Amino acid sequence: MINVFQKNLFWCCIVYTIFTPNVAAAQSKLDSYIRQGIESNQSINQQNFILEKNVYALGEAKSMFLPNVAFSTTYTKADGGRTIDIPVGDLMNNVYATLNQLTGSNSFPQLQNQRELLNPDNFYDAKFRITQPILNAELRYNKKIKSKQIDLQKTEVLLYKRELVKEIKTAYYNYLKATNAVQIYQSYLKLVTEGERVNKSLFDNGKINRTAVVRSQNEVSKIEAAIVEAIKTQESAQYYFNFLLNRPLSDDILVDEISDLPADDLLRADNISNREELSKLKIAKNIKEDLTGLAKSYLIPKIGANLDLGSQAFDWKFNRDSRYYLFGISLEWNLFASGKNNYRIKQTIAEQHAIASQTDYVEQQLFTELKVRQANMQRAIAQYHAAQSQLNTSQIYYHDMSKLYKEGMAIYIELLDAQNQWIDSQLQANIALFDTWISYSAIERANASFNIQ
Fold first, then answer.
1. What PANTHER family would the database entry show (predicted)?
2. pTM of this prediction?
3. Exposure of 445 in the CB half-sphere (CA atoms within 13 A)
4. 5 band by pLDDT with thresholds 50, 70 and 90
5. pLDDT reported for residue 27
6. In this structure, is the dihedral angle defined by the CA atoms of residues 53, 55, 58 and 62, taken in order, positive or negative?
7. What is the chain's mean pLDDT, rounded?
8. How many CA atoms lie within 13 A of 319 on its CB side?
9. Domains and CATH numbers, the chain
10. Of 53, 139, 345, 450, which residue has the fewest beta carbons closer than 10 angstroms?
11. Closest to 394 in 3D by CA, of 430, 412, 427, 420
């Protein structure tokens, strides 16, 4: 009987060693999952498409500074409408008649008065128009705004990635917590199952009463139910973790061996300047400043040049006489708009003040979040040390009580109480360990210290 208890004690000690502090183990598998999650996350992919759209919008804004070439043509077929009378015969026939008398010939024929349509008939006009902006403040501010919108969207993508990293880490540690809980219960089930067998043997030999047998049977049933619950918790954690990685929910999860506390370097950090939320507000403020400049750009005249190269003639003729060019310089200056521009400027300035006020509030909010996360980690560390102390105490208590029970100096109820204390302390140590890592991930999120590739 002593060997049986020593054997089961050995199995439980293996579980206990999981929670004793060791040298920090590299979490290479978790890092690999984080990269996989970032690459496959649908929300991040959607934000990347928006970023791609903004890049194209900037390219469009830049192209507005370059020459624009357009081809256009018109063809006119007309009949009827207004006409103009040209008295060619009345003006020239008398002169031509005199010339014919003087020359004794008919070289100068008589002319008819003409009536011409004002609408051109069978007339075409085809041309290339080249336009080039020379001075246009609106185009300059539009380009600056589009460029800053790209920076804003890049920050938005980074914000999504940082939140995803936190969620992946939290889900990963919750899965490890559930997995270790299953292992603890399974190891304990071996112990109580063996205890049930031994108690039945002792009862059959008349050395103990039925109470010990009933209690040992109840303990086996309780642990079996606890294992089922722990497995379901493990499966739920597995499903959520795989969901974050956008892969089949039932895929196996490779785990790192984590047996020590995270570093405490972030407990003293108070820098939140790397938070993407603040970067977004800063970029938004700069965009509002550019919008103010855009609203004020009406004070600067718009100057442009245009050149037409074309051909126009009747009956589709194309020759030297039909070809032409027109070159011009245009100037547009908005001198009066009934106060519309001033109201627009005041709107953008008010929006700048609103963002500045919002930035101060968000800074205080984020700093408060950081301090709360740090306090949570300090509490988790304290709970871990307390759990470790309780684990050591319960192990010694169980070891002593098992010796007394084997020597017949303690009843089974006392041994069962020692076993329950030990299993509870193992579970609490398991929870406390991974709660510290979850708290550490929350601090990484709070001060944006995790390096996202």
1. OUTER MEMBRANE PROTEIN TOLC (PTHR30026:SF20)
2. 0.77
3. 21
4. very low
5. 63
6. negative
7. 86
8. 5
9. 2-69+136-301+336-447 (1.20.1600.10), 82-119 (no CATH)
10. 53
11. 420
